[in-house]
Every structure is written in C-alpha cells, then in structure tokens.
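dumping this here so i dont lose it
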C-alpha cells in the first residue's frame, strides 16, 4: 500500500470516527419523534365548576432509524371540584310533619352537590331551615317561632295549601321564602335555598301581591293616623333629617317645620340615641343608605 493510499484510508476513517459539528447536528436531526402519553390534572373550585391544574405527561416515541427515546412533558389538565365553607355548599336542615315528606325532601336535596344536609342534632349551624307541611297550623307556627330564635338561620316554608290568613302568620314568624309543594321540583327547591342563603326572599306571585296589599293597608289604617311609617323613623324625624341633609341649621329647620329649636334638637338627639348614631352627619348617612329620606 502506498503512502498516499494509507493517508487516504486514515483520512476516511478519521472522517468516519470524528464527524464535525455540522455533520453531528445533521445526523441527530434526521427522522421524526412520535409519542403518546397520558396526564392527570388536579384543581380546586368553589361550589361546582371547572378549575385548571397542572399534571405530568410521560410518553415514549420512536425516532426513525435512530432507536427509542423516552421523555417527559408538563401539560395542563382540568378538574371539577366542590368547595366547602364560605362561598361553598349551603347547609340545610329539613323539618317535616311526617316521615314521607321528610324522606322526599331529603332525597331531592341530597342529589345536588351544592347542598349539605345537616342532621337535626346540628341544626343550629344550618344556613337555611326548610319546613315542609301540608298547611300552616298551630304546630307549624310553634316550630316557626322556635326556628326564629336562631338569627343565623333563614327559614323557608314548603306548604301544600296556603290560606290567605296565613300570610300574617308567616310575616310574624320571620319566614323568608314560600314555595307551594305542588311546584317544588328539584330546580325550584335549589333556587329557593340559594336565594335564602344570599339574603333574598322568594314568594309566589299571588302571595307577593297580597303581601304588598297588606303592607299598604297597614300603613294607611294603622300607621298614618299616628304619624308613623314602616321605617325606623317617624314622618317628623325623616323630615328633619332631610332638611339637615340639605344644609339647614337648627333655627332654619325650626322655622320650616314650625317647631321650636329645642324640639328640633330633641328630635335629632332622640334619633341619634335610638339608632346609635354619632352626630347629624352620621344620621343623614344612615337615613340615605336605608332609603329613609
């Protein structure tokens, strides 16, 4: 073998054994990688809803002509969660006059993830109390009065037959919502419970009309003759606070209302004391926030 041939073979072997950087990059770029993997995601949500979490995906893929490669990738997943505590499930206690009504109501509510049923022994911590009866009788009134003592729980009434005379009783017992049993499907029950938990009231349309008529009659026949209103202020108190809000001083208010300055001072002082208000500005703010003036 000549010297030239030896150098040529050595050079060929060297090029084969020690490819430069461009050759190495080209070699490892040849082919495609395919793979499939599965991942899991975890997340939390309030009540029921989607939440986004993170998970890992591990898959294997074959690289054409170059063997097998295993790798990991990070992806995202979705999870549905049910929250608990504040802003989560509504705690509900059920009271019924017989076992059949109790079982039926519990069955309807238990199926919904936004409701947490409370046993009778722990009923004091319920946000909502549902009373299920055929009609409002003396026994029902006693139960409603007992539930009224727990100011942290709002009471709803699911009733088979609602007499017109029961409207006054409902008001006196602090009932926040009424639903007729014939209309008490699952969706209406859940709406009732959630509305009460949010501080709202729910009444059938005809009962709402009767309630407004009742309030109007009460104002006209009982309160107006005595110079009173349904608000926490009498008509005279509301007028004086309105004048204060318009910038009038004690002498000007006395002149406009035809009372003495002493009477004006006493009336405003009585309002501030009764409602635990610090001064006239506080009284004006209170009256405006509550729609009294």
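and the seq i came up w/
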């Amino acid at each position: 073998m000549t010297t030239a041939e030896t150098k040529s073979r050595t050079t060929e072997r060297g090029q084969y054994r020690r490819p430069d950087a461009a050759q190495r990059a080209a070699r490892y770029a040849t082919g495609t990688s395919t793979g499939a993997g599965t991942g899991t995601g975890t997340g939390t949500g309030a009540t029921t809803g989607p939440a986004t979490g993170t998970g890992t995906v591990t898959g294997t893929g074959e690289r054409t002509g170059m063997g097998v490669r295993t790798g990991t990738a990070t992806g995202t997943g979705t999870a549905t969660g049910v929250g608990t505590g504040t802003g989560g499930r509504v705690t509900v206690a059920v009271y019924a006059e017989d076992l059949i009504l109790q079982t039926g109501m519990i069955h309807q509510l238990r199926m919904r993830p936004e409701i947490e049923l409370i046993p009778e022994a722990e009923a004091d911590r319920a946000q909502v109390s549902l009373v299920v009866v055929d009609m409002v009788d003396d026994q029902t009134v006693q139960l409603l009065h007992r539930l009224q003592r727990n100011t942290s729980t709002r009471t709803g009434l699911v009733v088979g037959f609602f007499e017109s005379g029961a409207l006054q009783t409902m008001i006196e017992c602090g009932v926040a919502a009424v639903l007729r049993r014939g209309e008490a499907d699952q969706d209406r029950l859940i709406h009732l419970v959630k509305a009460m938990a949010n501080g709202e009231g729910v009444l059938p349309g005809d009962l709402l009309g009767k309630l407004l008529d009742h309030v109007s009659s009460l104002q006209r026949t009982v309160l107006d003759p005595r110079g009173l209103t349904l608000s926490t202020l009498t008509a005279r108190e509301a007028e004086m606070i309105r004048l204060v809000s318009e910038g009038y001083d004690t002498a000007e208010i006395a002149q406009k209302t035809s009372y003495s300055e002493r009477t004006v001072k006493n009336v405003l002082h009585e309002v501030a004391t009764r409602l635990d208000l610090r001064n006239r500005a506080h009284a004006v703010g209170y009256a405006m926030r509550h729609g009294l003036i």
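The beta strands are 33-39, 48-63, 67-82, 90-96, 115-117, 128-135, 154-161, 175-180.
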